[in-house]
Task: inverse folding
């Protein structure tokens, strides 16, 4: 395990993924209280809302209020997402306080792309020049590319590393053709298909093609392997992960197949602490944020550390 | 990951660990229905009850009824545990239908041993000759030694591989002195202290001292790392694990610190399926048993596959 990174960067995506998923209405004050608690943990990036149509996603109608209401901590990037031009325009109005990223997402499978966005992967690629131009106007001449369903898809089954690399090559060609470049690559296990062997295979294949490009993993815990997949990635030096406080973002106890949230932030921070990998995050503060998340949504959330507790306290007591 | 075993042996400990932990009374019929469902999954070993004092563990007062009531499947070992001579005597009455194992347990930490059994580790070792003799009378001239808290202890903190090896050496010396030998070694992460690096370190240290001796891991998921610890163990060829259907055996949503159950059986079976390691277990049948376990205890249990679902069905649909 000699390739463990010295430190990792964790992006907290719980507020954005979780609040969107929750059925019941959560007050904007409660949402802000969770983002504010996260701001005090040492995490350096929080994706906390979406600029999407309130008609389709009423839970996110308060995006502008959220931007206005949160208390910004120094050194933290506050991020949001958007799915269309109107969303980007709304987000760009907050560019002094939001960390805008030139996001462009595709999918490992055509069917998932269609179900999710009503377009084929090729149709999505046709939209790339428009996005590149919009981002260039905002001063960003690269694209951070996210590949959804990069490991497998409930509609098309397993997705091979070759498929993902081919799609990313197309993205890069299109981007280059309009004066942009490939920035970071995000690989998302959207539906919980990945296992540790596959993590190493896909990351290996992407790295072979783009040796210097930063890779970020976004791992849903639908089938229990998310934390083991994080370990597999750490073992080959991956140092950038999305995660969700308390594992918010899915309700594993409802009948939603495949609806579990991202790997739990405090569980990943604990894993890193125990394996000697720096996160810059105060585990106790993140556990407290996890407990708050559970209070805010009003039902049990899957993260373990919020009930298991940090070993640091036990070690201290044992020494005393 | 070239040392992955071709196949693993999983011992289902959910009924024994889970029913003991549950606060509410569960009818003997319901308990039997779960054991019977497990019998049909292909698992070859089920630890389903304890012969302990009904005064101290009223949930296990029905041990004899359980033995009489379950439907035995061919090829399955039905196991139980005991903590004292009276318990072994009760179990031994069923020796035609129970798979008796010459268990002897110690702890990695003295304080945990005292809290758990009211004896120091040395006092426990003084009892070894009596146990060796009892097992010899039953035709077993070896001891299967379980080390509780082998990775860490809420009272004494981290437990080093050296401590565990030293304790096991004492066990072996005592056993040899009275004509028994060291059988298998079980390493239990009783309080959820282990991480993947530590799994490799402790298993490595034990193997270096006892190269041919089978090692079994018993991993509680108190702090989210149990499944990652299974992967770490598989990577170095460990091929024997305890696990609990649905993750029964603890309630991570109650305020019980350190009370989470064993790693979830169906999640481990899924992991093995995806990594190409044989378990002999029908994953769909084990998922159904997990769903039944949840019904029997009447509250959510932590296993993921029972809501996430087997990928095999998605793969089949995708091919159709």
Result:
């Amino acid at each position: 395990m000699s390739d463990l990174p010295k430190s990792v960067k964790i992006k907290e995506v719980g507020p954005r993924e979780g609040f969107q998923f929750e059925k019941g209405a959560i007050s904007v004050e409660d949402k802000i209280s969770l983002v504010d608690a996260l701001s005090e943990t040492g995490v350096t990036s929080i994706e906390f809302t979406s600029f999407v149509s309130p008609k389709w996603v009423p839970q996110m109608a308060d995006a502008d209020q959220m931007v206005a209401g949160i208390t910004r901590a120094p050194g933290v990037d506050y991020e949001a997402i958007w799915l269309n031009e109107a969303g980007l325009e709304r987000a760009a109005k907050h560019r002094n306080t939001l960390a805008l990223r030139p996001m462009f997402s595709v999918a490992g499978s055509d069917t998932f792309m269609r179900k999710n966005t009503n377009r084929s992967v090729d149709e999505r690629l046709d939209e790339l020049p428009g996005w590149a131009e919009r981002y260039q106007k905002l001063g960003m001449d690269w694209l951070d590319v996210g590949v959804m369903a990069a490991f497998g898809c409930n509609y098309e089954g397993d997705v091979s590393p070759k498929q993902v690399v081919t799609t990313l090559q197309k993205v890069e060609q299109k981007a280059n053709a309009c004066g942009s470049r490939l920035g970071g690559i995000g690989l998302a296990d959207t539906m919980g298909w990945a296992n540790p062997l596959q993590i190493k295979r896909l990351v290996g294949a992407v790295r072979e093609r783009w040796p210097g490009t930063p890779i970020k993993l976004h791992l849903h815990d639908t089938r229990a392997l998310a934390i083991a997949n994080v370990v597999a990635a750490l073992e080959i030096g991956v140092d950038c992960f999305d995660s969700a406080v308390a594992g918010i973002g899915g309700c594993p106890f409802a009948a939603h197949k495949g609806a579990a949230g991202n790997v739990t932030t405090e569980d990943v921070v604990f894993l890193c602490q125990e394996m000697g990998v720096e996160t810059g995050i105060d585990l106790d503060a993140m556990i407290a944020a996890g407990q708050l998340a559970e209070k805010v949504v009003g039902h049990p959330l899957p993260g373990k550390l919020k009930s298991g507790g940090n070993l640091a306290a036990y070690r201290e007591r044992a020494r005393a």
About this structure: Confidence is low (pLDDT under 50) at residues 251-256 of chain B. The first helix of chain B runs from residue 14 to 21. The domain at 9-319 of chain B is CATH 3.20.20.70 (TIM Barrel).
